[in-house]
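To assess whether ligand presence alters the predicted conformation, the chain was also submitted together with NAP. Input:
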Amino acid sequence: MNDAGVHEVAIVGAGFGGLGMAIRLKQEGIEDFVVLERGDDVGGTWWANSYPGCQCDIPSNLYSFSFARHDWDRAYPMRDQILEYLRDCARRFGVLPHTRLRCELLGATWLADEQRWELETSDGSLSARVLVAAPGLLSEPWTPSLPGLDHFNGNAFHTARWDHGDDLTGKRAALIGSGATAVQVVPNIQPRLAKLHLFQRTPPWVVPHFDHPVSPRLRELYRRAPALQRLSRGLIYAARETFVPGLTRDQRGLQLQKALARAHLRRHVPDPELRRRLTPDYEIFCKRIILSNEWYPAIQAPNVDLVSSGVREVREHSIVDNDGIEREIDTLIFATGFRPAELPIAERIRGRDGRSLAEVWGGSPQAYLGTTVCGFPNLFLFYGPNLNLGHSSIVYMLESQTNYSLDALRTMRELGAAEFEVHAEAQDAYNEEIQERLARTVWNNGGCGSWYFDRNGRNSIQWPGFTFEYRRRTRRFDAPAYGLRPAATLRAANGASRSYPSAHAR
Ligand code: NAP
């Protein structure tokens, strides 16, 4: 903290994005930073989501920091293992002393004259020159407002706020949703329920899951020769990038996966009528593809009732479908996902003209390189607009953002700048390009609705290219795209605002 009580950097969120940035700041020799985390622990989405069966659908060797090897015991990591990994990273790299848990950001205001962010938190106020907002994309559970829900007398909760006090044994439950979360939850709760009414509005494409324990011999080999684990990481990474042409240009490249999914369905579901109800009518990968060997067997169990007609209303002790059939239930579980284009943090961050991100965006988040926003100086958004992937690890994208942000801080130091703000033209041109490219993708053309689309019908979520393209574009802070301003005191001393050369040589 400087003499005026201003931190160099404040980071909001202690998930992969916030922790990764904090670790790299320390490695860069920047110690004056705080990490604000509203949860009781670090871990972000992996702390918040504790539902039964919670697991990542990206292999462990890729879904981890490039700089922090881990002794994974499964090919695909379970939630508890990821959480332990993140806790371990926070400890190992010395981030915990910088971290304030149970500290929620309530408001952040850019004070232009003082060139700093003033933050209001649930634990008091503080000030920082640079704000890194890393709240996670899938952090705010979304629940549909079903008619009659207020009168429900049983227990109702969202999967992202799992009620561990309700052990469900012998109960009658309804679960709404059939996305990535539902597919993991259902096989894990179905055996102990008396009855499960599964409300599936749209069937997912499901392919076999090749998860398996990592053998003790391979783990030992990775310990002795970490280069081999890095090689495995590289091979997984490369294999996943081969999906990109199919996702972003020519969907014929996805037909093999579709054949695999159809064969998986045929193998597990003998009844043709049920198969028909479980066959998607949209292109594979339009919604996130699902890996599961347990979903089809679980939904054919005798205590499961698959309801495809939608929810009409909820009553005191029951749920009624659109055909008017009423089902008695004790527990109602929402596996209804998130609304990532409407993050509450966007209402709390106010930029140069006093307007919030939410007001500026009007429902359609936009940023330059998914990271910086015109009108919001000295702000880095992590996992910002159009950075989500359909095929690979978000940790790779977050590390690219970290590279970029650190280079921005270095550039500012070298140039003696106190403030950066992306030019509107650079931001607009970037977003036009991204939207043009998205128009050719499976997410926009695959004939499905998804959480990739915001309330204005714009895809504000997906990255439409190879991840290495994003890595290349964020390798260096591109100063010409920005207005860089010196410290206000310097400006006053010079009697005018100083302008910097549009490019800098290093
Ligand atoms: P989601 O993919 O958005 O799925 C929500 C489900 O709720 C959909 O089946 C949706 O049906 C249904 N739904 C929503 N409102 C409804 C309503 N009013 N009536 C009936 N059904 C309704 O959410 P999610 O499953 O939580 O997954 C979100 C994302 O989290 C995933 O795409 C993935 O990126 C991530 N995730 C990853 C993993 C993993 O790594 N394995 C696990 C879980 C989640 P429609 O399809 O008809 O809209």
